[in-house]
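User: Can you help me understand a structure? I only have the sequence.
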Amino acid sequence: NLHSKHRNQIGVFVSIVSTKIPFKGTSKEYIGDDNGPLHKAVKHSIAQCCVQLRKELTKKNALKDQAERKKALTKC
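Assistant: Let's start by predicting it. Here is the structure, written out as tokens:
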């Protein structure tokens, strides 16, 4: 059940790499001070992944519950 007391936590790590920067090295990791739009885009993408994950977990739990009900009915 998605609303149970026992919830798993997920850690998300984001690495942004560009192949359009014309030099090599660790300085390629610098994305600039103006990362507002980038932050918003990453947050939106993670939110979309969470929606998809929730749909999958809901479907999985519904199938599990249905199988348990069917099993309980066949025991009688």
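Now, to help you interpret it: The longest helix spans residues 36-75. The chain has a mean pLDDT of 79. Let me know which part you'd like to focus on.
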